Protein 1
Amino acid sequence: MKKTLLSLAVVLLSTMSYAQFQVSASTGYAIASAGMKTGESINSSGTENHYGSYGEGVNFQIRGTYFFNESFGADLSFGYLNGADQTISKVDLPTQQVDAIARARAYGASLSMVYKFTNNVYGRFGALLKIGGKTEAVVSNRADLTQTQLDQFAAAGFTLPSGSYTQTNYVEDFHGVFPLGFVAALGYKYDLNSNFSLFAEAEYYGISLKRKDSELQSFNTDLYLPDGTLAQAGLYTMDNLPAGRALKITYSDELTHAEQADPSKELAQKVPYSSFGINIGITYKFNSASKVQ
């Protein structure tokens, strides 16, 4: 027992004597990794799929790393993702034009182990967690009125010529269940002096997010005559949504047949956030305990 305690004490003392802490700040850009289908483009000649990941875009990170010895350390990172636009729907038809995109605005954290292969080359791997943010959908939809709709307006005493159309614009925010993913990186650092160094690294995120709910942030539909003259502003608004449209939608893995007819309930789906990116940043290294007299 005494030998075990002595050995443990020696390990702890050697670790404390080396203990080194550093902080880093970086920015970078990530592209989709194994992109999944995000939407479709439709025109008079056919339909085209769009693939991508909501993890694509510019990111900013702040990281603290604690080294226990010359090779091993632990890393805690917090970051923000300003996601690139992903196509949800692109429609170009004589009677309808739709332009719908979605983009991530997400906060995340990761806890990783760090290993120095050399004094300049290192790797890290660990767990990744999205801790906040949203996926924002921005939609523009111009649609010609059908004959049925024209007849309904005429029955209400509002006669409109053929070719009249509606212009709908709305913003909807999607929120997800907090997911757990995987992060791995390989980097190279260049020492400027004993405290500061620059680094560049290739980083992989493996993560997807299951939707929990969504909520409209804005909604407006205007009615136009065929020549573009505004016939009625605010035909539909946040206070007067059209039939089949809900202010807030909740997502679940199972719905009854009755619930499926409720516009405020939908089946859950997973959206991709996996990405591969390059980060560039600067590190400040505090003097290790071994150098403190």
Protein 2
Amino acid sequence: MTSVPLTQADRLPADWRDLLALTKPRVMSLVVFTGLCGLLAAPGPVHPVLGFTAVLCIALGAGAAGALNQWYEADLDAKMKRTASRPLPAGRMSRQTALHFGVGLGVFSVILMDLAANHLAAAVLAISILFYVLVYTVWLKRRTAQNIVIGGAAGAFPPLIGWAAVTGDVTTLPILLFAIIFLWTPPHFWALSLFVRTDYANAGVPMLPVVAGIESTRRQILFYTLPMAAAAVAPWLLDLTGWVYGIVSVILSVIFFVLAVRVFANKASEPKAMGPEKRLFAFSIVYLFGLFAALVVDRWLI
């Protein structure tokens, strides 16, 4: 007996796993971690229940941004191999469902943050959601190769939110944490985009490797590594952290720089599976987790 492919109407309706997929759980994990670290590094006590609620709100806000991103980009996702199986392009969910889910999740996260923490934390959370959806997704992504440079600010807000949830203000250290993620995003994302540039080209998205080519992208990766490393070490140099964070930030930044130099020096016309670009991308995730973990350890031990 031969199987008959399912038509659009025959597909099973969306379930909780599709709703979860809308929130981009892998991206959310990094957002939640940096937000938690911002909260733990902030001076002053915070009630565990309120702290958990604040981190939950950061997660829900990130999930709302991811859902609204997929709602708006359903047509692009359908053209790219790595995103074609998402709920909307795969036909398991309507765009209206994704829109309602994203808006509802976003509004709920901001209101809950305002009630559990303070107005500033809620306001910064709202700005982060709107920035990702309106500035990055709607305005920049389809128009300019600088999309990830400017749009990367959206992923840099969580430490500010976590800090503000505890203190009710924003000072130099959380601003530097914002700068670290903001400057880290281009080399991190461009290292990945070198491997999926064909997908972006097919979808008509002007990512840097598509518009400027591989060589220029490798050069830009190295260029952005320098201010990123400077921002990473700055909290220690400005005496805002102790020696634990200082040593870790220097070591990790040196390793990142060496890997970026290897990417820049690579003359291969196509990135290889185990080439310097892939190694830099993998280490960039370790780099950010390591920096923020060191910040918390430094705060609690020194």
Protein 3
Amino acid sequence: MKPVSLSESSLPAQIWNSALQLDNIPVISTQSLVPPGARAVVIAPHPGDEVVTCGGLLQLLSTMGHPLQLISITDGSASHPASQQWSEKRLSVFRSQESVEALRRLGLPMHSLKWIRGGFTDNVLAEHELELTEFIARYLRPGDVVFSTWAADGLSDHDAVGRASATAASIAGATFNEVPVWAWHWPARDRELIPWHRARKLRLDTWTVARKSHATHAYASQLDGEPAIGIAPLLPRVLLERMRLPYEIVFV
């Protein structure tokens, strides 16, 4: 996850809580999204994106006994440039620990979870898209159902990982689904840029939502900014509020 400028005063104008189309998105079941026996692969550009994008879906799939694989593209160590409190050296260790705790809070089977860490550098993924595509394709196989960030999410790393994941899935013969993250926080005037015809709504029960929200709060390094050097919280309140919605939306 990366810094964005989200004014608290502009909250009512965000797509996620103002678009009328949200009420009309068709509901999809977990079984329809990931067929029985299929492996689900979640590809996260930065630590925490796996929870923000698919924290509810991961819980449902784990409960149903689906094989799961996570691919973390970067270690998120460049999230606080020029920070002494959160240096790259500290974050390279700390953010992976945050992810372990977050996945534990989701209730995932850590002893058997397949988890690949790419070690790519934050902020420059678009410059290494071919290498990124080849890396992802190495871990996919026919029949996989892949989830990653939308290629038009509006954040360079998210867009690059979305494009690379789509290409890699096509090469591997896997099904690819995109999940918007920052796109929901675009101004309401941009709502027509959302591919509503591809959107599907996965309903989450109260406990699944609660665990997802609890997991998001495991990312302590992302919850507080450093105003002295111009760094806002990387998990702003507006995003944390959206994590409590009783559904996740996927572009199929």
